[in-house]
Design a protein that fits this description.
240 residues; alpha/beta; 9 strands
């Protein structure tokens, strides 16, 4: 199976959401997402195993490895670029990974219109585009609307992990997530670590490490264990 073997069944002018062979197409600049009848994720996988979701999956190296190492877990890869989504899809088919489902579409749109509440056990966002220019920062994925959607779709005992090589974006992530009053930090202040050997690797991890950049891992637990602690953490993050 090759990436070119995946064809979308509609032109750009006639685009519409559709389920293909282990892939969901979520069209951009489309006004009728709410009309699509999205099955429960466990129906797509044909089992009741936990579902884990990775946004910004790139070429799929990280999530392919996880799906192979943890066959008793279900995995969803979300990627906005069609060339990368096709590569993940082809790799999954060639490895006969029945526990991996691919989404070609924008992360917030997919979450808002296609995911049921509390259907995800763990959420990962690996190296989202940092949009480094100040005038472009509004395009960053990790902002209030997306954080609210992640809180909605994540189970009450679920986790959120963010990975970036950009220190400015790292600080914004910490402030935005803690400011939502939904997530408890797993790490002590400054709420991130720079080493996590067991986390796994990816194309962008190798790329940035080879260029000498530091990688930042942020990890949060959903819950309301200690509201005062979360407020203190949010205050500390905004002042850091």
């Amino acid at each position: 199976m090759k990436p070119k073997d995946l064809y979308l069944p509609c032109s750009w002018e006639e685009r519409h959401p559709c389920l293909l062979d282990a892939l969901l197409y979520v069209p951009a600049y489309y006004e009728r997402h709410s009309e699509f009848s999205m099955p429960q994720l466990n129906e797509l996988f044909g089992n009741e195993n936990d579902v884990n979701l990775e946004y910004c999956s790139g070429n799929g190296q990280w999530i392919i490895e996880r799906a192979m190492e943890e066959p008793d877990q279900n995995w969803v890869a979300v990627e906005i670029r069609i060339d990368r989504a096709k590569k993940i899809w082809a790799k999954a088919h060639n490895r006969n990974l029945k526990n991996l489902f691919v989404v070609f579409g924008e992360a917030l749109t997919f979450s808002r219109y296609y995911l049921q509440s509390e259907c995800i056990s763990q959420i990962y966002v690996n190296f989202p585009d940092p949009w480094p220019k100040k005038k472009h920062a509004k395009h960053r994925l990790i902002q209030k609307p997306f954080i609210e959607e992640m809180a909605r779709v994540c189970r009450s005992d679920g986790k959120l992990t963010l990975v970036t090589d950009d220190a400015t974006y790292r600080d914004q992530m910490v402030e935005e997530v803690l400011g939502s009053q939904t997530w408890d930090p797993s790490f002590e202040h400054p709420y991130y670590v720079s080493e996590w050997p067991e986390f796994g690797t990816s194309y962008f991890y190798k790329l940035w490490k080879d260029l000498g950049r530091k990688i930042y891992y942020l990890d949060f637990q959903k819950g309301i264990k200690d509201g005062n602690k979360r407020r203190e953490a949010a205050t500390a993050a905004s002042g850091s």
